[in-house]
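Subject: Interface between my chains keeps coming out wrong

I've been trying for a while to get a sensible model of this assembly. When I model each chain on its own everything looks fine, but I need the whole thing in one frame so I can look at the contacts. Pasting all components below, labels as-is. Any help appreciated, I'm running out of ideas.
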Amino acid sequence: MANVDIKEIVLIATVIFLLAPTFLVLYVNMYNQRKKKHIEEKALLESKFQQELLKAQNEMQEQTLTHISREIHDNVTQVLSFVKLNLAIPAKATREQAELKIGESRNLIAQVINDLRDLSKSLSYDHIVQLGLVKTIEIEVGRINKSGIIAIELAVGGDAHNLGEQRELVLFRIFQEALNNALKHSGAKQLKVSLDYFEHLFNLTIHDNGVGFSAGEAPNGGSGLKNMVNRAALIGAAAVIDSAPGKGCCIKISIDPLTQYTHANRNHNSAG
Amino acid sequence: MLRYLTLNISVELICLIIAIVCLNKKAGKAWFSMVPLLIIICIAEISGKYLKTIYLQDTVHNLPNSWIYNLLLIFQALFISLHFKYLIGNYVNSKPLIISGLALTALLYFYESLDHGLYKYHNLTNTTLSIQFIIYSLYYFYNLLKDDSYVNLRYSAGFWWVTGILFFCFGSVISSLFYYKLSVILITTKGSLTAYIYYALNIILYSCWSYSFICKKWQTSILKK
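Reply #2:
Try treating it as a single job with all components included. I did that and got this:
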């Protein structure tokens, strides 16, 4: 009887041993399929990120062109027309009168040169790459403050460092979107922008003192805000939008290096 | 002549033909080395069968065929280890692992040769070698899955080659461990359970290898284009 039992045990052990490699191979195959799915998802996410980046670049370019065109029309052309009139000095004008007109024209032309220099520093993707996020936001804030449409207060805390070209581009685009929202919909008179750099955290906060909105009444059905949240997610950032009627709007973008996507760190040239 | 064409020998010969057709020097030294290994295996199997026939006729003056399989063990250890060195080497430095394995095999082989001579099969060496190959196979799978790039296993020559070895070695180990229990279980009047297990293992091993050679040929052809 014992002999029969041992025989059975041996047979069962043999069958198990013979089946073991089958399960092993099946497991390897299953894991490999999962890896394939993961790689495909990663590629899709990366392609989505590149598309979004391109979209952000195009939007920035469009905004820059609109700004340049408006500046040329409202400012440069007007001043130059005035200079043209000024220089059409009548023949009977005295030497002193002519010198006065020429002096005035020189000043106006100097002003136009300054304006054109500012325009050349307009906000493009290259500028973010060259100057960095802080400097680019400073230029934009300076331009808006100069126009007198709204008063922007900028505060930079901590040791400012590069967050990666693509991440800075997306952050700047979110800043532009928030600024546009504040200018178009909020009726705010004041805007506070703060960039806080910590060793393992970065915060961008944009706070206006406008009319604010409740959750269901976001401007444009909330598509602009959703866009901000989605873009923030693409660079591994979290976006928190806090607003209530009469209490303005506060947009806070936080980047925690532990959760950010690795591909967001790549250089512009190496992408796609 | 036809009486030497047993099931095992036929499967090995078919695998050898596929290897000759599919593998050339362009496939790389490691893959090409499968052709001489299979030639050696076929020669050893046919000689083994021939010696067994003589032994069964005259048990007094002839010695069993174990010495042939003991010699074959050396070639199997060398060629298969070389191939594993190449396959695992695609991911990590495999030299220390393979050299250690070969050193252990050599030590055991030497010990068994001194202990009971060449005319008795080196069971301990064979079992240890099989366990080594199982470890190499699992290590290869681990590296394959750990690697960032995706490999379509259906057409992966390396995967099928290792799968064949894994099946064979698992079966070989269990058959060695339970040899005395399994060999007394008769399936037919002529064949014991171990014999049938070995038939199945041989068919699985050489089918997997044949398919892996075909996959290798496809890969080589694609790379050539």
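Reply #3:
Confirming on my end. Chain B is about 75% helix and 0% strand.
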